[in-house]
Amino acid sequence: MNLSEISNVIEQRKDQYLEQLFTLLRQKSISAQNIGIRDCSRLLKSMMEDIGINTRLIETDGHPVVYGEIIKDPDAFTLLIYGHYDVQPPDPLDEWLSPPFEPTIRNGKIFCRGAGDNKGQLMAQILSIKTYVDTFGELPINIKMVFEGEEESASANLPSFVEQNKELLKADLVYTSDGPMHDSGAPYVLLGVRGILYVELTAKGADWENHSGNKGNIVPNPAWTLIDLLRTMRDKNERVLIEGFYDDICKPTEKEKEIIKELPFDREQVAEKIGYKQLDMDGEAYYHKLTMEPTFNIAGFTSGYGGEGAKTIIPSQATLKMDMRLVVDQDPDDIYKKFCAHVKKHAPDIEVKHLGAMAPSRTPANQEVVDIVTKAVSESFNQKPVLQPSLGGSLPDYVWTKILGLPSVVVPYANFDEANHSPNENIGVENFFDGIKCTCHVIYRLGECAR
Amino acid sequence: MNLSEISNVIEQRKDQYLEQLFTLLRQKSISAQNIGIRDCSRLLKSMMEDIGINTRLIETDGHPVVYGEIIKDPDAFTLLIYGHYDVQPPDPLDEWLSPPFEPTIRNGKIFCRGAGDNKGQLMAQILSIKTYVDTFGELPINIKMVFEGEEESASANLPSFVEQNKELLKADLVYTSDGPMHDSGAPYVLLGVRGILYVELTAKGADWENHSGNKGNIVPNPAWTLIDLLRTMRDKNERVLIEGFYDDICKPTEKEKEIIKELPFDREQVAEKIGYKQLDMDGEAYYHKLTMEPTFNIAGFTSGYGGEGAKTIIPSQATLKMDMRLVVDQDPDDIYKKFCAHVKKHAPDIEVKHLGAMAPSRTPANQEVVDIVTKAVSESFNQKPVLQPSLGGSLPDYVWTKILGLPSVVVPYANFDEANHSPNENIGVENFFDGIKCTCHVIYRLGECAR
Predict the structure, then answer these.
(1) Which of A50, A182, B45, B443 is most deeply buried (CB count within 10 A of its CB)?
(2) Contacting residues for B255 by C-beta, under 8 A, at least 6 apart
(3) Which ipTM score applies to this complex?
(4) Which CATH code is given to the segment(s) A4-193+360-450?
(5) CATH numeric code, B4-193+361-450
(6) Which tens digits make up the pLDDT trace of A315-346?
(7) Is B393 on the interface with A (CB under 8 A)?
(8) How many CB atoms lie within 10 A of CB A343?
(9) CATH dotted code for B195-249+294-358
């Protein structure tokens, strides 16, 4: 058995594999609008069965999960692969250079809604099974696959699906390929995500806007009410003052600190990418803030007049949108309770609305499986991957780490400019093939160690 | 000489006086759009000349002032009457029940753009001269009249006009009839206005909105920058912390305190009018806050996402609109300097824009002319007027009190529901005639004392 055979097999089958991806891409599957979802789940199931994966649709309260498995030996190492077959709506349509559901190759990239997010990466995972089996005769480990149809709708039913299928989903490692590779083009191995709590606060004043002259000092101003609350929530050094907000945060391990120190960082490149030339921090501070610290962000503040020039009013309402990115082991339900208690104490008339939440996740970096995956990715891409303890953003990764108690790694295959959620979404043709190869390498190395 | 003769003369001339008002109302004079202004100034001049007022147009950098005078004796008491012949644009047109420039009587009210604001009141003042002279043969005092054509465009050239014509405008009292009478229907004698300083603050973060997950803690949030500045500007007891903000405020005199205590106040009625049932203050606090205290109002706060649901962004900009109502002797230029110095010290990157300013004014309540006017108004309406030391809102009254150093009173003639600046603007037919009568009474009583 020689890993280079994998590349040879892929090389010979490029047209065939592309055609299979195109078939899946042409099938619409817009979860938010419930367009084509059922058809796509059935198509995916039949494609997986053709490859020899035992597949079935498992119903949820929303769109079905396509579940597949190849169980070699119940006691063998089991890799659970997660992905999603639903896509974002294609709007705005007039910005697409080719039809959004007709895969089109230009400049070495496949343009189609879902190409990068997530059908191209999901298909790479499925086709890696075919490639591996056809090359080596059989898999060295058990494979389970969970492809959900609601990822673009906040994975509304994924947690309950996982809760209800703990036995079925028993595994040793969860493996996700979603999102883009590192900006530098290097592969990524991500060990977790930040969680999120999104709230909306509404302060009300009078029943309508009043004139700021005739009524100034008489009618309360809801913008000030919100600001007076905010000043009790965060000090000028940006420390959150809500009681217990920081209580459950785990300090980074020595291993994580080491990893953070070694992460590649080009201040000027980052500054350019975020549009903030004045950015003044080193790599260590940057990655520590991004992966180990929670945020307390104002996503929107809207009150009164926002047009040109002057309008002399006292606003009747002020609305604040806030998202808090949470880090292990902050629990969004607990933080929400603490947040509400704080509001109740300081500004009981302000209304708080819960707009969404997701727990954080982090897989300890000092586990053997992390080393194995990192090695496999490194070999496959012939380039050292960027190993990061957490994404700054949020994914429902906690369903694996919290509900199933499993280690979980995210290894994205899409190019950094995949334009997911945007017009002209794409995946590099070579990214697709590299993804097939990388999954084969991961299976191979996991099988080696599990022997 | 018997004052009741005044009423008799008016009674006999009602149709004639209404026709004269209608002629003026039919002539458009929209200053903001420069529609009909010149024609209106000429029409007004000729109507005043017909009555025997020496009238001329005085050019400014904008629209002309119509200046009229009847000088009986250079040493006699001189009353300067101020008003404006320009009107607001009539939009939205489709909400008018009758054409906006065709005066129409319905339910005892004259509907027309400018009916209440200010042609109806201005015409009452002009026709009072005719009524007085025709009744008693001659005026007992000197009369000067300043009718500007830019009041609805922030009186842009009135201060320089007054500065340049100090000698011409020499007088003993300035008398203005503009705005509505008291909500209760009682007449009003107003002794001043609050000033205003309107500023816009802009805080900038990155050059574009960033994702709150991938960039949270990295990119600065301009909404927080503004809020952190605001917390240095005002404490939680609503006291403004800008150095020197309160320095020049004159305490109310004993007389003003007495007046405030006596002002009519119906908590429930006020609460209903402003749409704030929870209003919890007595009349003394209400009028003190409204007339003697400055405001520090947020008229608008706009940053980031304000639509439905959640959007996970870090705003790239935050904009704050603030108006400060100022009381004597706060100087808007001085307050602006102090405001800017504060911003420069605490948040030097925040941009401050000056959007407008007007100085406050207040005529001391313990002057004889105030008593005379109050008495005349009381007799004319057969009802005690509401004497208020200041309006909560702002008018360019300081040009008389500050630049000319004169006492100035505002006695509105329009009904409280005149709908100025709105569709279906109107003035009560009787309000118009009462206005003629009231000005006659004022002239009479001033003449009596000046004798």
Answers:
(1) B443
(2) B364, B365, B366
(3) 0.90
(4) 3.40.630.10
(5) 3.40.630.10
(6) 999 999 999 999 999 999 999 999 999 999 99
(7) yes
(8) 20
(9) 3.30.70.360
